[in-house]
Amino acid sequence: MTDPETFIRGLPKTDLHMHLEGSIEPELMLELAERNGIPLRWDTADALRAAYDFHDLQSFLDLYFEGCKVLVTERDFRDVTSAYLARAHLDGVVHAEVFIGPQSFTERGIPIEALMRGVLGAMDEARAQHGITSALLISVHRHRTEAEAMAVLDQILPWRDRVVGVGMGGAEVGNPPSRFARFFGAARELGFRTCVHAGEEGPAAYVREAVEILQVDRIDHGNASMADSALVRDLVERRIPLTVCPLSNVRLRVVSNMAEHPLKSMLEAGLHVTVNSDDPPYFGGYVTENLLACYDALDLSIADVVRIVRNGIEASFITTEGRDSLLYRLDRYVEASRSIEAASV
Ligand code: HPA
Ligand SMILES: [Zn+2]
After folding, report:
1. Ligand (nearest to CA of 175)
2. Which of 23, 142, 248, 278 for mutating ligand 1's site (highest number of atoms within 8 Å of CB)?
3. What note does UniProt attach to the cofactor annotation (predicted)?
4. 16, 60, 140, 282: which to mutate for ligand 1, most atoms within 8 A of CB?
5. pLDDT at 185
6. Using a 6 Å cutoff on CB, does residue 95 contact ligand 1?
7. Of 99, 144, 147, 306, which residue has the fewest beta carbons closer than 10 angstroms?
């Protein structure tokens, strides 16, 4: 019989909430620092890994922004993107939607062209080499001003056809979605899909603002929604996907341990939940590890896991044909696993 881990690793999955700046494995971080002559506070991969001990979102963001400094050239952006997509492919991810936040780089004088060419070039290469498809989401920082976010929108216009959507991350509490109403309105008018981090450390009211004021297509995290049953009803009715990141939530102490994670209650409430990796090296796992951690700690059934993976495909920002083809692939995989099981009884 196929064991659950092999089955889950082999499922054709999506990763819809993943930050390229947060995907740099410690070994690559050291290599890039050396290549660019950037001093780091750590000189071994183990020392870096040991520093990934966070007590809240801000303690993570401090390290995450420090890590951004090793990315300087087009080649660096290409290498980081290639490494993530190769690793995700091994993990059974067939489609990834990845964030990058240009403000961390343009503020240091790095031209946006270097970032865009590196990332998009690697995405094209990974598709040719591994068959993995990916889409780019441009993220702005909510702890900066809305005017700065609007400037990012201007900067990415030359790549309008290659950027599927825009999102927003950074320090949540004190920076409610409503501060960025004009930015998200402008992004929607330009034809970008939209998503926003909400209800990670912030309250359910931020998720409500994201849906009602920003009118986003997807909520990143969204855990806090469970505190407001009327909001849950709205999210279910409007079928707004939530890109949940369970290992991230444990590491950032949004939940005290995996057994306390609301994922199963969210599923039972009928929410369109997906499972994603956020910043894999920082939080200890790619999508498979996230799904396995939930499967083990929350007593999920294999049918629950397949439901979550199906939700991910349905929540993606790809074309209807692309989505249908991934759903077909998922159904075939599940059917084939059933036949193997039946034959081995
Ligand atoms: O989980 C997150 N929350 C907010 N900002 C972020 N930037 C990267 N990951 C995150
Ligand atoms: Zn995130």
Report:
1. 1
2. 278
3. Binds 1 zinc ion per subunit.
4. 60
5. 98
6. no
7. 147
Asked if residue 63 has its Cβ within 6 Å of ligand 1, the reply is no
**What average pLDDT does this structure show over 41-56?**
97
272 ligand 1 Cβ < 6 A: no
Task: DSSP for 4-73, please give it.
Answer: HHHHHHHS-EEEEEEEGGG---HHHHHHHHHHHT---S--SHHHHHHT---SSHHHHHHHHHHHHTT--S
Residue 344 pLDDT > 80, yes or no?
A: no
Q: Is 278 annotated as a binding residue?
A: yes
The Cα 230–Cα 209 span in angstroms is 14
Whether 22 lines ligand 1, by a CB cut-off of 6 Å, is yes
Average per-residue pLDDT for the chain: 97
- In this prediction, residue 339 carries a pLDDT of 83
Residue 20 and residue 81: Cα distance in Å, rounded? 7
Residue 19 marked ligand-binding: yes
Q: Are 179 and 142 in contact (CB under 8 A)?
A: yes
pTM for the model stands at: 0.97
How many residues are listed for the chain in this entry?
345
Domains of the chain plus CATH, in order, are: 4-344 (3.20.20.140)
Each residue's pLDDT tens digit, 227-247: 999 999 999 999 999 999 999
Query: How many whole angstroms separate alpha carbon 241 and alpha carbon 2?
Result: 30
